[in-house]
């Protein structure tokens, strides 16, 4: 079972958005996907409660029980697991990092957000797991994401080549438990998620 941890010490970076969209993309691709929500705010779990479909399964729990929750997901047939974490670099994030095969670090292409990812990247390094920054909520028709990526790669940070733009479909879709690719299957947001998922399959 492949395990992807979505980590960021900063709030508002789009961790849950990334987790639910990639888990749904996995489901639509025919895989058995699950989400473990370790965030006390339980945003992913609330999304799962609103969702009208059984998959992907979303389970809310505490970091101390992560091994048991992962085992439960595997016994239920999950072959890809996403771990959504709280916006801080605490023990829950450390547990998730150690359990993951790969770590995704969503980040808006803004100075404060870029500065805030260093702690998360250090946590990934300590866990000995590959971590990729995923530029999220990127303003369309702006060079700011290119500048952010150049700055990150210049200091040796791995950056996902696929980006998610700031699009209404990402917000409207999750209101009733859907995702962008279900809300507007032919839209640009759905295409971005599909490209991101294909990349994730290659690297994980």
Structure, briefly:
The chain is of the alpha/beta class.
Description of the structure:
The chain is of the alpha/beta class and 204 residues long. It has a single domain (2-203), classed as Rossmann fold (3-Layer(aba) Sandwich), CATH 3.40.50.300. It is built from nine helices and six strands, in the order βαβαβαβαβαβαααα. It has helices at residues 15-28, 43-50, 66-75, 91-99, 111-127, 144-154, 168-174, 180-183, 188-203; strands spanning 2-6, 33-37, 57-60, 80-84, 102-107, 131-135. It has a six-stranded parallel beta sheet with strand order 3-2-4-1-5-6, with helices on both faces. α1 (15-28) packs across α9 (188-203). It is globular and about 45 Å long. The mean pLDDT is 94.
List the helices and strands and how they pair.
Blueprint (H helix, E strand, L loop, with lengths): L1 E5 L8 H14 L4 E5 L5 H8 L6 E4 L5 H10 L4 E5 L6 H9 L2 E6 L3 H17 L3 E5 L8 H11 L13 H7 L5 H4 L4 H16 L1
Parallel strand pairs: 1-4, 1-5, 2-3, 2-4, 5-6
Helix pairs in contact: 1-9
